[in-house]
Design a protein that fits this description.
The protein has ten helices and no strands. It has helices at 6-18, 35-43, 47-65, 71-98, 114-142, 147-177, 183-218, 222-225, 230-245, 257-271. By secondary structure, it is an all-alpha fold. Bound molecules: fe (ii) ion (FE2) (2 copies). One fe (ii) ion (FE2) is lined by residues 57, 84, 125, 160, 163. One fe (ii) ion (FE2) binds next to helix 3 and helix 4.
């Protein structure tokens, strides 16, 4: 498969369309939660942020789709816009069903350069999804919330994985077309956009911690947090990335930089000797 060719474009667009799942958020198998489950779900401090991010995602992708002339690419990006808008409706449905504290905030004005906004958004999704894979797995294993709820969230995780596979292929296809397809240049471009995405993510986490983090740690979140370590997180991110990516057509590109950085970090952490007991006086 020659990256940047018509055949490449057809493959990643048709694959994206073929793996679209039609559903309405209200029809998903939302579980009944007991008082403890409700309290834990309500104490999670980032529903407001997730809801806003999904609404903003829909707006960016829809605005960008309008600027795309190629009918096949445009149909695929339109479909992604629809799915992002459906994510926002899914989160809205959950907020209403379980009485979560999150409201609809006005969306900030989109940047004039919608191409850069879409590329920034795409790298942001790659970073969020890679970290999200590990957090999701650890949270699910900790039984912080009923497994049935994680099955519903998994619908969303699957779509975000499709989005990043589509995005890395779309990006590589365009870089070839823009004359920037040589490998060192592509890696540098990725690095630059990931650095921007990381800065935004740190800002989001800081805002979340400032706003309502105390509630979360006060409500049995320790079942989740006690088991948590950076080493475990990186290990789960890598394992889940491999598992989730294996579902997609083998000819498609997948994100490579973050898993490579993750593997290096994980190897370094395994070599690290860990804490040793203090020497006892003789
Ligand atoms: Fe989304
Ligand atoms: Fe997405």
């Amino acid at each position: 498969m020659k990256i940047g060719s018509e055949a490449h474009k057809e493959l990643f667009c048709r694959h994206f369309k073929a793996t679209h799942r039609p559903f309405e958020p209200a029809d998903l198998p939302w579980p009944e939660l007991d008082e403890g489950g409700l309290a834990r779900l309500r104490a999670v401090p980032f529903w407001q942020e997730v809801f806003h991010t999904e609404r903003r995602a829909g707006a960016i992708v829809e605005a960008f789709a309008k600027t795309v002339d190629d009918p096949l690419l445009r149909a695929a990006i339109d479909l992604q816009g629809y799915e992002e808008e459906r994510h926002a409706r899914l989160i809205r449905f959950m907020i209403d069903r379980y009485g979560l504290a999150a409201s609809e905030q006005p969306l900030e004005k989109l940047p004039d350069d919608v191409v850069t906004a879409f590329v920034d958004f795409g790298y942001g999704e790659c970073l969020d999804a890679f970290l999200g894979f590990g957090v999701f797995k650890i949270a699910r294993q900790s039984r912080f919330l009923p497994d049935a709820l994680f099955s519903v969230f998994d619908v969303l995780m699957y779509e975000e994985t499709r989005h990043i596979v589509f995005f890395v292929n779309w990006m590589a296809y365009n870089e070839v077309r823009w004359g920037r397809g040589a490998m060192p240049l592509r890696a540098l471009t990725s690095l630059r956009y990931y650095a921007r995405a990381l800065r935004r993510l740190i800002g989001t986490v800081r805002r979340g911690a400032d706003s309502d983090g105390t509630n979360f740690s006060a409500t049995q979140a320790d079942v989740f947090l006690n088991d948590f370590s950076v080493k475990r997180l990186v290990g789960e991110c890598l394992a889940e990335n491999t598992r989730r990516m294996s579902e997609f057509d083998r000819d498609l590109l997948r994100p490579r930089l973050l898993p490579a950085v993750g593997r290096i970090a994980f190897s370094a952490m395994r070599l690290w000797p860990g804490r040793r007991p203090s020497p006892q006086p003789v």
